[in-house]
């Protein structure tokens, strides 16, 4: 890719600093942009992440993983390379990796969004010579509605279900999306219940000082009567008959950027699809890439081919690097994994 | 337009039948009749024909969105729906339109047809400019002729019946045939006076339910009237006030497509309605369905076609006799009356569908095995005391179809699906072995479960060897059993055969490509003497 960063079968490698960024296989030193499974793999000897993200990363990797941290903006010098982490606005502790050597600056975005999110530090635009950008939603059909309006819709939907005495079940990725939604729910409507996978990360968020309203693990529920008024947040993988059986009178919804496309919503056959993503939409990608003023843009994840072609046509130098994850598969269930 | 767009959104949001009815009833309660009549029309699938060329619409939308052609195409490929792609790409809406549906349709949509492209463009852009996202989507669906929503006509009828407290059958009857989209007609649809005068109006068809398993379960043979299941187009012949009307089951008036039937039916007494099957017919037996296909697409027919693909009407039932609706009398009596109406007719253009006689179900089973050589699809079994009902119901009328033909074939091409399957590779082309290679012979879209579709989709993404536009050629590895109803010679297909209603019977994960069937096996399934 260039003389500072190279792509090899284990992932994106900085040879002079001898570290990988979000490696796909176990390595000695891994710099992690955020704790989602396709960016943070098990089995590395040591990990480095943003201080805010340590709790969730530890929860994901287990207590014996060796994790070092850097505060946002703090510089660590390795072998003449200045390494620093900067907010990406994706989930709690998500970071862009900035590498500087001899005045040459590279930045690897990880996943990012520009929309406000009460549970994480907002994206900090970087200026760099080479920018490695995600492009999960790199097509102009993906444009997000105002998240404040979406949250109001979610609350109104919950209220209307509650008025009919029905349980609201909202599927959202367990790490990040779930907490962002919980932070925006109106707890005066009713009890907020959670699937175990969500509750585990709620604890990490609270420990990191994120202001979440009270939630209750649905498995430990004594009083079944409150189900009629409750909203349950669960990961998409819970959307199966054996888990749902406990909530006979229910209405299901799914919160994801993929819900922007009607076919995705219909395929999941949920009652409602809320368009809410922790990734950038098309405009967000374009603005962020432009703000870097990078001479070269390297695109990865999602519609990378399209994004790179579009950038090239606009007179910018862009190329695609493949990822072993997801490829172009568009499974509405695994959005935030990327 | 607001109320209709909202109705569309609510119907689209739910998969529950009861909820859909609720939503429609709520809409009918408040919608003014001049709007409701258009909604009814669109909901039951009578969408307007396409008024603006698709190419142009894409061009205008891309231009307005500031998106190049290839990026528009790439987006369309992911969304899988043109109207939706346009909606998602257009600049953010600044408001929504309060103009009622009937005015949008009558003043803006319908007059668009045939206008100069520049004028059309102006009108379409102006419409987009006034509408919000859901309105734009519905509008785009309407002008591209692709409006569809997940409700059946039956469901709309149920909602109208619930709302008006009028008998569903009466409403069903009034929704058939040609009617004007006016406020007056809307009132007529839900009018408590169920005497309807329109002489052209057909009755709703009563359809057979597929019989699975042993026919012995139907009880004594003598309780049943059994006929061949003819492979044509179900139709209704109407003779009232000296005029003939022919309707197809698709509720299309097809009188002019079958002039030979129109002439023959002129000798029927006034006040006669006959249910039957339109068949390509020569020398006392049906011709292959492909002969009829040549007639279906034509508005009018020339002499040559009339000679090459003549049709006959095989009468099943008498619904109206001497101007009286006799659907509630027993089948045995209707059959006797039918026979009295048909036998004096000159020629054999209109003939009665013969009753097949045998003593036991075993004998019928043996006869049923002759179906293919007789050019029929099996049997139809009707209870002799049955009344003529509406729709496809279990109980009195059954069809007992012969098993489909099938071969094991190899998946070689795939294309992305639309609608519910948008974005997934669900449209497949299958091939059989020919020498050392493979020759494509059928396309199939249905038959796999959602889980299997996802698996095949993943296979396609990982095993694409070549792309031709939206079509991907894949490594020939997956084998499927493809079932179909019939097979004929064809000069238009590379394989030299055309199969009818191909679908995926099952995924043969146990078979390799080498074990797939050959073109010889496939052609051997062709019945003798079907060189059409």
**Fraction in beta strands of chain B:** 15-25%
What share of the residues of chain B lie within helices? Answer: 25-40%
Domain count of chain A: the total is: 2
The major β-sheet of chain A equals: 7 strands, mixed
Number of helices of chain A: 8
| Mean pLDDT over the full residue set of chain B | 90
Known CATH architecture of the largest domain in chain B: 2-Layer Sandwich
**Poorly predicted residue ranges of chain B:** none
- The poorly predicted ranges of chain A are 326-338
CATH topology of the largest domain in chain A: Metallo-beta-lactamase, Chain A
Distance between the termini of chain A: 22 Å
Total helical segments of chain B: 20
Pairing-aware structural class of the strands and helices of chain A? alpha/beta
Mean pLDDT over the full residue set of chain A = 92
The number of strands of chain A is: 19
Per the principal axes of the C-alpha atoms, what is the gross shape of chain B? Answer: globular
CATH homologous superfamily identity of the largest domain in chain A: Ribonuclease Z/Hydroxyacylglutathione hydrolase-like
Cα gyration radius of chain A (Å):
20 Å
The CATH class of the largest domain in chain B: Alpha Beta
Class based on secondary structure composition and strand pairing of chain B: alpha+beta
Protein described:
- Chain A is an alpha/beta fold.
- Chain A has two domains: 6-142 and 278-337, 4-Layer Sandwich (Metallo-beta-lactamase, Chain A), CATH 3.60.15.10; 147-274, Metallo-hydrolase/oxidoreductase (Rossmann fold), CATH 3.40.50.10710.
- Chain A contains eight helices and 19 strands.
- In chain A, the strands form three sheets. In chain A, strands 7-8-9-10-11-18-19 form a seven-stranded mixed β-sheet, with helices on one face. Chain A has a six-stranded mixed β-sheet with strand order 1-2-3-4-5-6, with helices on one face.
- Chain A starts with 5 loop residues before the first strand and ends in an 18-residue tail after the last strand.
- The model of chain A is unreliable at 326-338 (pLDDT under 50).
- Chain B is globular.
- In chain B, the strands form five sheets. In chain B, strands 4, 5, 6, 7, 8, 9 and 10 form a seven-stranded mixed β-sheet that branches.
- Chain B is an alpha+beta fold.
- Chain B folds into three domains: 2-143, DNA ligase, ATP-dependent, N-terminal domain (DNA ligase i, domain 1); 206-401, D-amino Acid Aminotransferase, Chain A, domain 1; 405-523, Nucleic acid-binding proteins (OB fold (Dihydrolipoamide Acetyltransferase, E2P)), CATH 2.40.50.
- Chain B has 20 helices and 22 strands.
- In chain B, 38% of the residues are buried.
- Chain A binds chain B through residues 139-143, 260-264, 266-267, 269, 271-272, 303, 306, 309-310, 313, 327-331, and chain B through 12-15, 65, 67-68, 70-71, 74-75, 78-81, 84-85, 88-89, 92, 418-424, 450, 454, 457-458, 461-462.
């Amino acid at each position: 890719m260039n003389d500072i960063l190279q792509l090899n079968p284990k992932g994106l490698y900085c040879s002079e600093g001898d570290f990988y960024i979000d490696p796909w296989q176990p390595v000695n030193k891994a710099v992690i942009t955020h704790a989602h499974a396709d960016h943070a793999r098990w089995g590395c000897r040591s990990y480095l992440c943003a201080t805010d993200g340590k709790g969730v990363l530890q929860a994901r990797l287990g207590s014996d993983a060796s994790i070092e941290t850097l505060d946002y903006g703090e510089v660590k010098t390795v072998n003449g390379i200045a390494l620093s982490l900067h907010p990406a606005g994706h989930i709690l502790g998500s970071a862009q990796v900035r590498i500087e050597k001899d005045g040459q600056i590279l930045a690897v975005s990880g996943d990012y969004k520009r929309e406000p999110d009460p549970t994480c530090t907002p994206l900090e635009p970087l200026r760099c010579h080479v920018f490695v950008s995600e492009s999960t939603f790199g097509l102009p059909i993906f444009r997000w509605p105002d998240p404040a309006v979406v949250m109001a819709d979610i609350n109104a939907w919950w209220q209307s279900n509650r008025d009919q005495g029905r349980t609201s079940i909202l599927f959202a990725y367990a790490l990040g999306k779930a907490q962002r939604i919980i932070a925006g729910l109106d707890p005066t409507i009713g009890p907020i219940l959670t699937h175990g996978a969500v509750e585990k990360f709620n604890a990490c968020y609270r420990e990191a000082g994120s202001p979440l309203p009270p939630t209750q693990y649905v498995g430990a529920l004594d009083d079944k009567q409150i189900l009629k008024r409750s909203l349950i947040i669960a990961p998409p993988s819970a959307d199966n008959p054996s888990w749902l059986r406990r909530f006979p009178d229910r209405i299901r919804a799914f919160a994801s950027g993929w819900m922007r496309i009607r076919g995705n919503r219909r395929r999941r056959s949920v009652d409602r699809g809320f368009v809410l993503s922790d990734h950038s939409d098309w405009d967000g990608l374009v603005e962020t890439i432009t703000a870097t003023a990078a001479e070269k843009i390297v695109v990865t994840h999602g519609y990378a081919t399209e994004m790179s072609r579009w950038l090239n046509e606009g007179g910018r130098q862009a190329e695609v690097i493949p990822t072993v994850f997801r490829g172009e598969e568009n499974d509405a269930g695994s959005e935030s994994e990327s | 337009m607001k109320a209709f767009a909202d109705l569309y959104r609510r119907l689209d949001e739910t998969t529950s039948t009861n909820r859909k009815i609720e939503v429609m009833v709520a809409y009918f309660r408040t919608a003014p009749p001049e709007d409701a009549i258009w909604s009814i029309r669109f909901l039951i699938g009578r969408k307007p024909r396409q008024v603006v060329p698709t190419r142009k619409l894409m061009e205008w939308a891309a231009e307005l969105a500031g998106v190049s052609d290839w990026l528009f195409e790439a987006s369309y490929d992911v969304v899988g729906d043109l109207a939706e792609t346009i909606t998602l790409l257009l600049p953010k809406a600044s408001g929504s339109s309060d103009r009622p549906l009937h005015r949008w349709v009558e003043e803006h949509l319908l007059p668009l047809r045939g206008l100069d492209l520049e004028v059309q463009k102006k009108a379409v852009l102006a419409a987009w400019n006034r509408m919000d996202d859901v309105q734009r989507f519905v509008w785009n669906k309407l002008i591209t002729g692709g409006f569809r929503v997940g409700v059946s006509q039956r469901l709309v009828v149920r909602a109208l019946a619930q709302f008006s407290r009028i008998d569903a059958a009466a409403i069903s009857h009034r929704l058939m045939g040609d009617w004007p989209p006016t406020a007056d007609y809307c009132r007529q649809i839900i009018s408590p006076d169920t005497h309807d005068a329109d002489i052209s109006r057909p009755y709703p068809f009563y359809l057979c339910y597929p019989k699975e398993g042993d026919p012995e379960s139907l009880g004594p043979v003598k309780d049943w009237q059994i006929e061949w299941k003819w492979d044509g187009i179900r139709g209704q012949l109407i003779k009232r006030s000296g005029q003939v009307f022919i309707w197809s089951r698709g509720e299309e008036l097809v009188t002019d497509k079958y002039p030979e039937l129109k002439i023959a039916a002129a000798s029927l007494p006034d006040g006669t309605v006959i249910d039957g099957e339109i068949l390509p017919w020569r020398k006392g037996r049906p011709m292959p369905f492909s002969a009829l296909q040549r007639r279906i697409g034509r508005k009018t027919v020339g002499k040559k076609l009339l000679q090459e693909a003549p049709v006959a009407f095989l009468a099943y039932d008498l619904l109206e006799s001497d101007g009286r609706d006799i659907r509630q009398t027993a089948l045995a009596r209707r059959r006797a009356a039918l026979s009295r109406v048909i036998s004096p007719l000159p020629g054999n253009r209109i003939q009665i569908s013969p009753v097949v006689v045998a003593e036991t179900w075993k004998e019928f089973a043996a006869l049923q095995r002759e179906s293919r050589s007789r050019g029929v699809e099996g049997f139809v079994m009707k209870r002799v005391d049955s009344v003529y009902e509406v729709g496809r119901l279990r109980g009195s009328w059954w069809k007992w179809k012969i098993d489909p033909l099938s071969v094991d074939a190899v998946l070689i091409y795939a294309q992305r699906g639309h609608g519910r399957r948008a974005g997934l590779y669900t449209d497949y082309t299958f091939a059989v072995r020919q020498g050392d290679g493979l020759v494509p012979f059928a396309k199939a879209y249905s038959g796999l479960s959602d889980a299997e579709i996802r698996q095949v989709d993943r296979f396609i993404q990982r095993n694409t060897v070549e792309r031709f536009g939206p079509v991907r050629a894949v490594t020939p590895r997956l084998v499927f059993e493809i079932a179909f109803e019939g097979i004929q010679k064809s000069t238009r297909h590379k394989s030299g055969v055309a199969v009818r209603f191909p679908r995926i019977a099952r995924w043969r994960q146990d078979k390799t490509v080498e074990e797939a069937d050959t073109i010889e096996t496939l052609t051997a399934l062709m019945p003798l003497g079907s060189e059409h």
